[in-house]
Amino acid sequence: MTLRIITASLIVAMAAIASHAKGLTEDLNYNVRLGYSIGGTAPVGMPATIRKLNSYDFQPNISFCFDVQKPIYGRFGVLTGLHLENKGMKVDATVKNYHMEIEQDGNTLQGYFTGRNITKVEEWLITLPIMATMQLGKGVMLKLGPYVSYVMSKDFEGEVYNGYLRNNTPTGTKINFGTESDERGTFDFSSDMRHWQVGIDFGADWYFCRRWGVYADITWGVTGIHKSDFKTIEQTLYPIFGTLGVTYKLK
């Protein structure tokens, strides 16, 4: 008798789970996306040590995305997915008394640099967004929520030129850097970058026909790209990017 009761209870429980799972998979919308991102890794608020941005070179920041969206109540729903993203930048800036660690002729120098600084950053990431959605009207949907990214490959390097470094302190020994390749200094902080990043994603989709649409997103990292114990660059650098692209509704 007891065995029959247990068996019946398991059957009822499994039926309830199956029914609930079926409800979760109903009315799902599947989308694929192809986007291009523009942005960079930057401090929040321009510090006084960065005096001028001389150039910004566009990078091949392509993203490939697969998203699943489910309506929950009325106009509101949830969205998640997997995004393969490339985020990078290359900038040439004029800095003053910028704390740096520089390699020159096999020697490592640390201090305060004044002059031109070229920084190149590149990351390949797998990103999982978890976003609330709201339908504004026919074909228009707003999205907002957090994301977590795993950085598969990372690169943060550059060079300094046409300036000088004050060794160790702002009044230390002056070390000059020229414009020729053998007169420049280099830096590489790739090994100091995080493998995990967390941030906020805000965006909108607009489907101009039944399956095809365009989208725009802004992602703002709330964790810096470097590890918490990295102090060579005094400011925390956050990944901030805007993405434009096309989307196709599979279902």
Could you give a short account of the major beta sheet? 8 strands, antiparallel, barrel
Low-confidence stretches: 5-10, 12-21
What does the average pLDDT come to?
89
- Number of helical stretches of at least 4 residues: 1
- Provide the structure class: mainly beta
Strand order of the largest sheet: 1-3-4-5-6-9-10-11
User: How much strand content do the residues show?
Assistant: over 45%
Rounded to the nearest angstrom, the distance between the terminal CA atoms is: 48 Å
- Label the overall shape: elongated
* SSE series: HEEEEEEEEEEE
Rg is 25 Å
Helix content: under 10%
Plain-language structure description:
- It is a single chain.
- This protein is mainly β and 251 residues long.
- It is 10% helix and 65% strand.
- The protein is built from one helix and eleven strands; from the N terminus they run αβββββββββββ.
- The two termini are 48 Å apart.
List the helices and strands and how they pair.
Elements: H1 2-25, E1 29-42, E2 50-57, E3 62-73, E4 76-104, E5 107-137, E6 140-167, E7 174-177, E8 185-188, E9 196-207, E10 212-221, E11 238-249
Describe the structure using short key phrases.
single chain, 251 residues, eight-stranded antiparallel β-barrel
Could you provide a short overview of the structure?
With 251 residues, the chain is mainly beta. Helices cover 10% and strands 65% of the residues. It has one helix at 2-25; strands spanning 29-42, 50-57, 62-73, 76-104, 107-137, 140-167, 174-177, 185-188, 196-207, 212-221, 238-249.
